[in-house]
From TrEMBL, chain A:
Annotated spans, Disordered: 265-286
SUPFAM superfamilies: P-loop containing nucleoside triphosphate hydrolases
Record key words, sorted: ATP-binding, Lipoprotein, Nucleotide-binding, Transport
Domain of life: Bacteria
Record-given protein name: Sulfonate ABC transporter ATP-binding lipoprotein
Gene3D superfamilies: P-loop containing nucleotide triphosphate hydrolases
Lineage: Bacteria, Bacillati, Actinomycetota, Actinomycetes, Micromonosporales
Sequence ranges assigned to domain ABC transporter in this UniProt record: 4-238
Transcription recorded as keyword: no
PROSITE patterns, alphabetized: ABC_TRANSPORTER_1, ABC_TRANSPORTER_2
From TrEMBL, chain B:
Family: Belongs to the binding-protein-dependent transport system permease family.
Protein's GO biological process: transmembrane transport
Keywords noted in UniProt: Cell membrane, Membrane, Transmembrane, Transmembrane helix, Transport
Any single GO CC term annotated in Swiss-Prot or TrEMBL for this entry: plasma membrane
Name of the protein in question: ABC transporter permease
Organism: Actinoplanes auranticolor
Subcellular location: Cell membrane
Main localisation: membrane
Length: 286, 280
């Protein structure tokens, strides 16, 4: 079962006009169900555009985008995914509870069902006590958690996230990363996660998709195997090896200073199979 | 309680300014190079506040009803017209704003005329509309139409701004929920426009009062506060306090309309009141 499948996808903004921009070209990507995939790349590489194509917020210029085995437009109408943006984008006139209920409301769920589901979701993100608060009363991290709860409210098989932790401080960010992983594991949701943080991509993902700009394309996909993702995983050799692999892919061909060496000899000395693993699956940039 | 106190304090300051100027100002007004820069402070131009209040208690004409009853009756009459004009203007403004938000081409085509409509002098327009009075609709309706004509403008412009206020993230979120234009309007754009709507309604309320008063004067409609101001101002030389009683009535009318808008706002803007941020 594939969660997302893109074949030969390209996206051109303002085609035929002087300000024509080729945002994406020749994108092929398949995401199996239950996988956590990060899209990473410099700004302007089209990673957000790619996410928006999957969400059918903007149409592809060529190629096919399928979500849960259906065309992206159909999948959107069936609410096959939940989405969260960098700004929490909560409706300030609704309480936290009613914000989480919004997608259910639009689906025509009964009042009792909405309430039960919203309560469940708020408990999941640890905000059960704040159901009656208004968004303006919450800190940025809490608002983002409400946004995640809202995205998950309809139990979508796919979660799309566009730099959801980008505006948060490092501490809140790390905590929310762990929470997000726990939630995804618990609900079995597949996730596409756009970020520009290498460490965030590596820590969260089963697979990191590296993109490069002008035109936006996939230059490498790097598999990450960290086992259990906890604080220990953030210190593990495999973690640093994957970070190096992603960094190398982002820089493109050419000499890259070996960061792993700087992090400590132990990390290099450990002949981890993963050190070669990610590198072999990485397709080098042309 | 605090708001009541500050309102009373404002009134006291106003009265103090009025009486203070009367006490120190030149009764003939201050004239500089042949131009009067400060008004006359004599009893004919600026009667004492207590004279106005006591005039309210005395009869309008010898043996007639006391002035306060006449002024109140006229104010209520005009309030009725104002309310009808305000409501009609608000609804029209709202519909125009929604149409302009929905269709870009309507916005481009209509907005210049919406603005143009307000630059046409009201006195030129009034006789035109008055032509229908008595045949197409009753006389007072003409005044209500003029009030609506002034009231729709701030609502249309403010509401359009409000409907366009949601950020892309909100609009895309609604799209991701497969919500169409109507449901996006109801769940996102309308609630988001409320902070823009209420200031616009306040302006519209004031405009409706002005429209009703000026409309009454220029169409010669009897029974309202506008007519009363004209009638009493004819007696200004012999009974200067009288015209101010009519003005008090007009001011009261404006306050009542503003209060009505505030009452409308109260239940809809609840989320704006409690804003102590929880940090965790």
């Amino acid at each position: 079962m594939t969660a997302v499948s893109l074949t030969g996808v390209s996206k051109i903004f303002n085609p035929g006009r002087p300000d024509e921009v080729a945002a994406l070209s020749g994108i092929d990507l398949t995401i199996p169900a239950g996988q956590f995939v990060s899209l990473i790349g410099p700004s302007g590489c089209g990673k957000s555009t790619l996410l928006r194509l999957i969400a059918d917020l903007t149409p592809a210029s060529a190629g096919t985008v399928e979500v849960a085995g259906k065309p992206a437009a159909r999948a959107r109408l069936d609410q096959e995914y939940g989405i969260a943006f960098q700004q929490a984008g909560l409706f300030e006139w609704r309480t936290v509870q009613r914000n989480v209920e919004l997608p259910l409301e639009l689906r025509g769920a009964s009042r009792a069902e909405r309430r039960a589901r919203a309560t469940e979701m708020l408990a999941l993100v640890g905000l059960a006590d704040f159901a009656g608060h208004y968004p303006a009363q919450l800190s940025g991290g809490m608002q983002q958690r409400v946004a995640i709860a809202r995205a998950l409210a309809v139990h979508p098989p796919l979660l799309l996230m566009d730099e959801p932790f980008g505006a948060l401080d490092e501490m809140t960010r790390e905590r929310l990363q762990s929470e997000l992983l726990a939630i995804c594991a618990q609900t079995g949701t597949s996730t596409v996660f756009v970020t520009h943080s290498i460490s965030e991509a590596v820590f969260l993902s089963d697979r990191v998709v590296v993109m490069s700009p002008r035109p936006g394309r996939i230059t490498a996909t790097i598999d990450v195997e960290l086992g259990t993702r906890d604080d220990a995983a953030r210190q593990s050799p495999a973690y640093f090896a994957a970070i190096t692999a992603v960094r190398r892919a982002l820089r493109g061909p050419g000499p890259v200073p070996d960061i792993v060496e700087a992090e400590g000899a132990a990390a290099v000395a450990a002949p981890s199979p993963r050190t070669s693993g990610p590198a072999s699956s990485a397709t080098a940039a042309p | 309680m605090r708001r009541v106190l500050s309102a009373v304090a404002g009134l006291v300051v106003l009265i103090a300014l009025w009486e203070g100027y009367k006490a120190v100002g030149n009764p003939e007004g201050t004239v500089l190079f042949g131009v009067r820069i400060l008004p006359r402070a004599d009893d004919l131009s600026m009667p004492h506040v207590w004279d106005m209040l006591s005039r309210l208690a005395r009869p309008e004409l010898t043996g007639g009803r006391p002035v306060w009853q006449v002024v109140l009756g006229a104010s209520l009459f005009t309030l009725g017209i104002t309310t009808v004009g305000f409501a009609a203007g608000a609804v029209i403004g709202l519909l125009l704003a929604v149409a302009m938000q929905r269709f870009r081409i309507v916005e481009r085509g209509l907005l210049p005329y919406v603005i143009l409509s307000q630059t046409v002098p009201l006195v030129a327009l009034a006789p035109l509309i008055a032509g229908w009075g008595g045949t197409v609709w009753p006389e007072w309706m003409t005044v209500a139409v003029i009030a609506a004509y002034l009231a729709f403008f701030p609502v249309a412009v403010g509401m359009l701004r409000g409907l366009q206020s949601p950020q892309t993230a909100g609009v895309e979120l609604m799209r991701s929920y497969a919500a169409g234009w109507w449901r996006t309007l109801v769940k996102l754009r309308l609630p988001a426009s409320l902070p823009y709507l209420f200031p616009a309604l306040r302006l519209a309320g004031a405009a409706a009062v002005v429209g009703a008063v000026v409309g009454e004067i220029s169409t010669g409609t009897r029974g309202g506060i506008g007519r009363l101001i004209i009638e009493y101002s004819r007696e200004a030389t012999s009974d200067p306090a009288k015209v101010y009683t009519a003005m008090l009535g007009a001011a009261l009318l404006g306050l009542v309309v503003a209060a009505l808008v505030s009452l409308l706002e109260l239940p809809l803007m609840r989320h704006r009141r409690r804003v102590s941020v929880v940090t965790m």
